[in-house]
Amino acid sequence: MTGTFILSLDCEGKWGVADHLDAGNHATLTDARLRDAYRAILDVLDRYAVPATFAFVGVFAEPAERLRLLLPMLEEMDGDAGGYLTPALADMREGTRQGWHGDWAVEMVQSARSDHEIGLHGVTHVPWGDVGVRFVEAERALLGQLTNPTRDARTFIYPRNKVGHVDQLSTMGIEGYRAAKHHSSRVASLLSEFALHEKPDQPCDRDGDQGVIPAGRFLNFKAGLRRFVPTAVTVRRGANMLERAARKGGIVHYWLHPENLAAAPDTIDTLEGIVRHAAKLRDSGKCEIMTQLDYVDRQIAA
């Protein structure tokens, strides 16, 4: 029996917080701090030869000069997005202009020694669970105008984990998506960090023509009350799940935002601890390490 480990990253820049920008976002999500965060993550993954899925917001993956040409299209879409994009457009035109363009991050991922997957985390990060099909169709049209590798992505991570319009994914070339857990309170989520004997996930059924990757767990990051959760506790929780999966089968899927490390750089120690343990089990033949696409391809072949 072997377990499965998956690591996925929601790569957003400022697009993930475009609807609630504040001084803290502007201070932490700078180009320099984002570069440091991506570099730290890729260094860890290269150190242990662990592939991961980096799912980029499509417009974040564009170079600045290309994105400028798309601003009129984004302004037109904003009406169907409930104004989600308004602060982003204002900051790109007249504000800090920081944190919106991550083509350099795509290049870093593609240049890494490990063979990472480039996935899609929405085209604009507007949650599909909050919009109608007309906006989804506009995103599909916008995706066709992009020049970065998200155009060819085959797995999808829903912005804010709000699953919706699953029937539209295949029209964008998507073959599988990350599932979402039922919403829990912040207190319950925090307390779950101390559940040291939690069971791994089990395989999900396909959803129509889409493969479904188990929802997994958010990697605790060292900000707010979460900074009081000891790194050793989070790593032990992950290690216990990995050991159980190695003995009895199951999937251990962790996800995080690289942007979390821009706000709380010490989070890298937690990530490294879990990645190290997964790599140790892989090297002893007890664990497979997969990208989301690897997992979906296995579902299709089964």
What's the number of helices? Answer: 11
Number of E strands:
9
> What order do the helices and strands follow?
EHHEHHHEHEEHEEHEHHEH
- Compute the separation of the termini in Å: 17 Å
Low-confidence segments: none
- Could you tell me the strand content as a percent range? 5-15%
Given helix and strand content, the structural type is alpha/beta
Write a structural description.
- The structure is a single chain.
- The chain has 302 residues and is an alpha/beta fold.
- The protein has 11 helices and 9 strands.
- It has helices spanning 23-28, 31-47, 64-77, 86-94, 103-111, 133-143, 186-192, 231-248, 258-263, 267-283, 292-301; strands at 3-11, 53-56, 117-120, 155-156, 176-178, 211-213, 217-218, 251-256, 287-290.
- The strands form 2 sheets. Strands 1, 2, 3, 7, 8 and 9 form a 6-stranded parallel beta sheet that branches. Strands 4-5-6 form a 3-stranded parallel beta sheet, with helices on one face.
- Helix 8 packs parallel to helix 10 (267-283).
- The radius of gyration is 18 Å and the shape is globular.
- The relative contact order is 0.20.
- The model has no long low-confidence stretch (mean pLDDT 95).
